[in-house]
Design a protein that fits this description.
about 425 residues, alpha+beta, five-stranded antiparallel beta sheet, globular
């Protein structure tokens, strides 16, 4: 039993490959290589691993073609992270899984995530403090005299240290009258303002206070991509846990900013000094830096999940992802991680921190692996060779009377 890869096969070459019966099979039995095979193998996930290890399995041979095809974002792909009991209700799967992996947000004791639930003002302050501390619980204190009158002694007193920390950093403010309203809901615009400050924007300079604060926030939030994937969201309404995770994930992948002093001529011809926001750069390399890179020292390795030691030649306990960081030349990354085989062929993002002694910009066993999440940009179809139909368009694979854009890699399981 072997696992074969047919890499970078596109267009007519793909169908020629099968029509000429150049698929190889390494199986026990009397069939010849390239012989037509029967029904698809429907075992997946952990059951698939067990089946692959079962010596009796080859008696009934099956060839399964795993096609990674590009799909519209409207197609829901189940996440591979926390596997909540209500996972099927989560729309922003990658963002939720990433935030869970980074220890920013979690589920409830009953195993649910409650994606449709709202985020309270007290809850968001803890999420932000943990995120800004690289996913670790920060060591925070509280002032002798509390800033707000409705936090200490309330049901949300647990959040006082997070609230005070966020206030000190200019991330949040009160609702007036010396109150914070810790049990109140957070709107999309309010969360955007908090995240913009986390990225380095100054509320006073940018006009994030006063009558037009929400307009100023929404313009900048759109520029920084905080609303990406949430274009239909009502930013003035209470934000859901699902959408909050997406906004936090967008912010983590946005570049931080810093202010540079600039002298300009005003409308009256006078020279004035202004503070202009520019992308923050790392002094040693002059590279821009995202919030994720800064706070977690993390990188994102994106590519195709190729399997574990049951289906490819790697060490027990490892998985293999073929991809790269920042769209550089792709390569295989092998590292220890427990990831369900039902996601084989999916595009995934590996969140990792380079360790000492490993390969730079590629996850391995020397690194800290924060998590592996399905991006939702691909889906996988398990079909037999006989399911393939005559190609209608170059660069596509056809089955079930539909054309599918082929990814750069086709995987064959025997």
């Amino acid at each position: 039993m072997e696992w074969f890869y047919c890499t970078h096969i596109r267009g007519s070459c793909l169908l020629d490959f099968y029509e000429q019966q150049e698929i190889r099979e390494q199986i026990t039995g009397t069939e010849k290589p390239g012989e037509t095979v029967g029904t698809p193998w429907k075992t997946c996930g952990k059951l698939r691993s067990k089946a692959l290890a079962d010596k009796g399995f080859p008696q009934k041979k099956v060839l399964s073609l795993v096609l990674c095809v590009a799909v519209m974002l409207s197609v829901m792909v189940m996440g591979a992270g926390a596997a909540f009991s209500d996972q099927d209700k989560i729309e922003n799967t990658e963002a939720v899984d990433a935030c869970v992996a980074l220890n920013i947000i979690g589920g409830y004791p009953d195993g649910s995530y409650k994606p449709e639930g709202n985020i309270k003002r007290s809850e968001i302050t803890k999420m932000i403090c943990v995120a800004l501390n690289g996913g670790k619980e920060p060591n925070l204190g509280t002032p002798v005299t509390p800033t707000f009158s409705d936090v200490r002694g309330s049901a949300d007193a647990w959040a006082e240290k997070y609230i005070e920390s966020c206030v000190a950093q200019g991330i949040v403010s009160g609702v007036g009258g010396g109150r914070f309203s810790p049990a109140g809901n957070v709107t999309g615009s309010q969360l955007a303002k908090m995240l913009l400050v986390c990225l380095g924007f100054d509320s006073d300079i940018e006009g994030y206070t006063g009558n037009a604060w929400d307009t100023n926030v929404n313009v900048r939030a759109s520029q920084k991509g905080l609303y990406e994937g949430l274009e239909n969201m009502d930013v003035s309404a209470a934000i859901t846990r699902d959408n909050a995770a997406q906004m936090v994930w967008n912010a983590l992948n946005a570049y931080e900013i810093e202010y540079k002093t600039k002298i300009i001529t005003d409308e009256n011809g006078n020279l004035i000094t202004v503070n202009e926001p520019v992308d923050k750069v790392v002094a040693a390399t002059n590279d821009k830096i995202t919030l994720l890179e800064d706070k977690y020292e993390a990188k994102t390795f994106t590519g195709t999940f190729k399997g574990n030691s049951n289906v490819t030649s790697i060490k027990d306990g490892q998985i293999q992802v073929y991809g790269s960081v920042n769209d550089t030349k792709p390569s295989n990354a092998n590292f220890t991680y427990d990831f369900d085989l039902k996601y084989i062929g999916e595009e995934v993002s590996v969140l990792f921190k380079d360790g000492t002694g490993g390969t730079n910009n590629k996850p391995d066993d020397k690194d800290t692996i924060y998590g592996v999440v399905v991006t939702g940009n691909t889906t996988v179809y398990n079909i037999t060779k006989n399911d393939l139909q005559t190609q209608k368009e170059t660069g596509t694979v056809r089955f079930d009377d539909e054309n599918h854009d082929a990814a750069s890699q086709i995987s064959v399981i025997t």
